[in-house]
């Protein structure tokens, strides 16, 4: 179990599975860079969180809901949490103070752009669900990724495999913080759209830096002969 002081942001899981070096730069070196995609995403999330709550007969909507898991050492904010009323004697839901019936929580994470199947976003959403499960002592089956530009939802099922990615990712993040070592860059097509490409210097860190260090070690070895 982790303490409140040890909690790492759930969003770092998304960074990790997009690029481990990106996660290291944000977590360890407190660096961040914006581009048009991240800037628009920030505005979108702010607008969603400020949207307030909605109450309907069978659905209640809450925005900007804070969650955490002391078991995994993660904390974050759910963009939109829908509570759906369970019919009859169905079990598996949770009670709400002052409201009759049982309700099942459904987390919804808002994303910028058009609908796309991206693994790191699914892991992030599943981590939010795992936090809710721990806090409410319930089990959740699915949530949604909502893409603003296409105005469509992508259903995400919280499978055992996806939960293992959450567990493994949380462990990797805490190990990264413990070691204090930012991972080296792995050059890929993702670098072109990454808002931190200038801060990261992927081609320098992945190739030139390694060759430079190798030349230094070679000189030291020759000098010791």
What's the SSE blueprint?
Layout: E1 8-9, H1 11-18, H2 20-27, H3 36-49, E2 54-55, E3 59-69, E4 74-85, E5 94-96, E6 99-111, H4 119-136, E7 142-147, E8 152-157, H5 160-179, H6 197-200, H7 202-223
Parallel strand pairs: 1-4, 6-7
Antiparallel strand pairs: 2-3, 3-4, 4-6, 5-6, 7-8
Helix pairs in contact: 1-2, 1-4, 1-5, 4-5
Indicate the mean pLDDT.
83
What multimeric state do the chains show? single chain
Sketch the topology as an H/E string, one letter per element. Answer: EHHHEEEEEHEEHHH
Q: What is the CATH class designation of the largest domain? A: Alpha Beta
Please bin the fraction of helical residues: 40-55%
> From the coordinates shown, what is the CATH architecture of the largest domain?
Alpha-Beta Complex
Q: Based on CA inertia axes, which overall geometry fits? A: elongated
Task: Give the number of DSSP strands.
Answer: 8
Span from first to last CA?
51 Å
CATH topology of the largest domain: Lambda Exonuclease, Chain A
Largest sheet: 8 strands, mixed
Number of domains: 2
Helical segment count:
7
Rg calculated over all Cα atoms? 21 Å
* Helix-strand makeup class: alpha+beta
How much of the sequence lies in strands comes to: 15-25%
In the predicted model, the low-confidence regions spanning at least 5 consecutive residues are 34-39
